[in-house]
Each structure stands twice: as C-alpha cells, then as structure tokens.
Amino acid sequence: MGKSYKIAVLAGDGIGPEVMAQALRVLAVVETKFSLKFEFFERLVGGAAIDGAGKALPEETLKTCEDCQAILFGSVGGPKWESLPPAEQPERGALLPLRKHFGLFANLRPAVCLPELTHASPLHPTIVEGGFDVLCVRELTGGLYFGEPKYIKQEGNEHFAVDTMVYWESEIRRIAKVAFEAARRRKSHVTSIDKANVLQNGVLWRRVVDEVGKDYPDVTLDHLYVDNAAMQLVRRPKFFDVVLAENLFGDILSDEMAMLTGSLGMLPSASLGETHEGSTSRFGMYEPSGGSAPDIAGKGIANPIAQILSSAMLLRFSCGEEAAAAAIEAAVKKVIADGLRTADIHTPGTTKVDTAGMGQAIADAVAVA
Ligand SMILES: NC(=O)c1ccc[n+]([C@@H]2O[C@H](COP(=O)([O-])OP(=O)(O)OC[C@H]3O[C@@H](n4cnc5c(N)ncnc54)[C@H](O)[C@@H]3O)[C@@H](O)[C@H]2O)c1
Ligand SMILES: CC(C)[C@H](C(=O)O)[C@@H](O)C(=O)O
Ligand SMILES: [Mg+2]
C-alpha cells in the first residue's frame, strides 16, 4: 500500500451531495489503481449543518478539517436558509470562514473548453474553434468580501449599506506571484484585472502587479479594466492565458469563463494557502466554482465533472500525486471524446447521461487507463 491521505469531505447542500458521491466513486478507483489510501471524513457543512447541528460550520467539522491534509467541498446555500441573518447563512457562516481560517488566499479556477465541447459553448463556433484554456487566479481572502466595516444601518427613514474594499500591498503581491508562477508553466501571459480608472484599490493593484512583473521578464503582462475584460472574454477567449483578479472581480469573471467553456458544471477550483519551502504538498480546499444549483437539485442531472476535477486538483496540490491527478483529467477528456454528456452540455448527436452515469463512466475510464 502506498501513501495514506486524510481528506475532509464536506458535501453541503443542493447538488453538493449528488456530485460529491461521483467524486468519491472516482477516488475509490484511483485508490486501487495507484495503491493509495484515502481516509475520508464526511462532515456537515452549510445548510445541512444548520439543520443537523444548529450552525453552518460546527466545531466538529472545523476540527476535522484541521486534522486533514485537504478539504473536498461540495457547495452550500439555498432558498431554505436565505431568510436567516446574513452571518448565519451557509455562505457567510461556513464557506467564507473556512477560506479565511485556513488562509486560502489563492483560488485557481482553470476554465478549459475542450475541442469536443465547443458546440456547448454559447460563443460563436468561429470564436471557440479548437477550444481554449484560461486559468483564473482569484484572490480569495481580501477585498469587499472581508473588509471592515461592513453593515446596514438606518438613518431617518432610510437604510444604507457599507462594504469596505481593502487590499494590502502584501496581499496583492502574494497573489500576483501565484499568477506569474502559473503563467511560467503555461503560455507565459498574465492579464491583470482592475478598475484603476475609478477605484483606489485598482490603482494600488496595478502598481504592485507591475512591480511583481519586473521579477518575471519572461512573462508578458497586460492590464484590463474589469468591464473591458468581461467583454474581451466573450470576444476573444483565446487571447487569455492567466487572468489575475481580486476577489469579487474573480468571482464574477470565473462564472463567465465557466459558461464560455460550456457549463458552470465543468469548472473546478483549488483554494490554497502559502507554500512551504521544499514541500510538494500544501493544505487546500477543493470545490466546484458553481453553487448548490437549487433549480436542478434532487433530479440526478447535475454535471459532476467540476467536483471530479476538483478532486484531481486535490491530489495534485495537497497530496503531490501528479500521476493520479492526470489520470482523472485524462478520464474526463476520454468520456467527453466518447460523446457522453450531462444535460447541461448535451448537444444533438451526443449521448445524454445522468449524474451517476457520468461519474461511473469517468471511474471506469480511470480503471482501464
Ligand atoms: N461554493 C459554493 O458553495 C457556492 C458557489 C456559488 C453559489 N453558491 C450558492 O448556491 C446557491 C445557488 O446559487 P446560484 O443559483 O446563484 O448559482 P449556482 O452556481 O448554484 O447555479 C447557477 C446555474 O448554473 C447551473 N449549474 C451550476 N452547477 C451545475 C452543475 N454542476 N451541473 C449543471 N448545472 C449547474 C444551475 O443549475 C443554475 O442554473 C446560493 O445559495 C449561492 O450562494 C455556493
Ligand atoms: C457562495 C459564494 C460566497 C462564493 C463566492 O462568492 O466566493 C461562490 O460564488 C464562489 O464562486 O465560490
Ligand atoms: Mg461564484
């Protein structure tokens, strides 16, 4: 038996448990095939934890995560919990605290449009022909999400709301480095996103990214205002290699990128903290970029690929098991090339499968690879 890994499994709400079951199915095959041992610790999180344990992030769940090498996360939230006080809701009560608690400032979201899926993309075939591959590097623990003060108050007869956008140079510098390092392993092109024509945060962001860029003369750096970037992604997605963005802009642009690849159900993510000198593995949380999809939850039709590819990222970054990660990614490509499609990416001439059918096909492809 090879190495052993402890993984916290937080499936959450909506389609979370449905797609998580498929990731675990694939990981079970990986375990045998690569002689690894995964110890899974399934715990409550989000709405399921509010219902089952009284709060979105129970102490036991957090403690389990602290004892593990990585978190495989599904998704949280849904209409049932939207009327709770904001801080108690699944997103602000569990997901954001997990990111902050573990210092997971670097969110990698690889948006890959496979050549076979260009018909599922809403873009014109001439724009996406041959597919494209963009990596969104999103800052995850700063900006408007976490800045203080943050409140809604009443003055006279009216309420007003305040959110604060704060970025420290050091926060910009460390995420910029992640983007430049990633670009070196790709096409050596970073496009940094900001709103420097309006926001002070944008002015500082651009200045610091330029400074970091001087250490990477081999990487081409350009800057785009976020509104232009949203447009250019639709106009010419192939222009982009690594897109570097602060928290909110990265959130918005990554949903756009996901859809351009065919579906939000295709986009995995890795949320990582600092690297430690000489270490090939680091703690991380891995989750689909999309949410709990209440509109399709319980129907067994969700696309499990984002969750399965998130588990591949977990093996790569938190376990250093590159061969196993690559095997999962190759299996996903194979089933897509074989014409299997969940409803969200189904086009005429391809074979429609449900969530479990897609998970089983990917697991089978890993087994025979
Ligand atoms: N990481 C997370 O836990 C996370 C991320 C985003 C949204 N959310 C939460 O999820 C809930 C629903 O949010 P929303 O509706 O704005 O966004 P969503 O991402 O859940 O869904 C947006 C659209 O994409 C579709 N979609 C998403 N994932 C899919 C998949 N795997 N297969 C097929 N289709 C898929 C949905 O059916 C829906 O039409 C909210 O409570 C939100 O806060 C959680
Ligand atoms: C659910 C929400 C808090 C979260 C975010 O905004 O970061 C989600 O949209 C994401 O992209 O992971
Ligand atoms: Mg989002």
UniProtKB/TrEMBL annotation:
Catalytic activity, reaction form: (2R,3S)-3-isopropylmalate + NAD(+) = 4-methyl-2-oxopentanoate + CO2 + NADH
Pfam families: Iso_dh
Site (Important for catalysis): 145, 195
Positions that bind substrate: 99, 109, 138, 227
Known EC number: 1.1.1.85
InterPro entries: IsoCit/isopropylmalate_DH_CS (IPR019818), IsoPropMal-DH-like_dom (IPR024084), Isopropylmalate_DH (IPR004429)
Gene3D superfamilies associated with the record: Isopropylmalate Dehydrogenase (3.40.718.10)
Domain named Isopropylmalate dehydrogenase-like: residues: 6-362
The protein's required cofactors: Mn(2+); Mg(2+)
Cofactor note: Binds 1 Mg(2+) or Mn(2+) ion per subunit.
Protein keywords: Amino-acid biosynthesis, Branched-chain amino acid biosynthesis, Cytoplasm, Leucine biosynthesis, Magnesium, Manganese, Metal-binding, NAD, Oxidoreductase
Any GO MF annotation of the entry: magnesium ion binding
Top-rank EC class of the record's enzyme: oxidoreductase
Record note on quaternary structure: Homodimer.
NCBIfam families linked to this entry: leuB (TIGR00169)
Stated family: Belongs to the isocitrate and isopropylmalate dehydrogenases family. LeuB type 1 subfamily.
Name used for this protein in its record: 3-isopropylmalate dehydrogenase
Organism: Terrimicrobium sacchariphilum
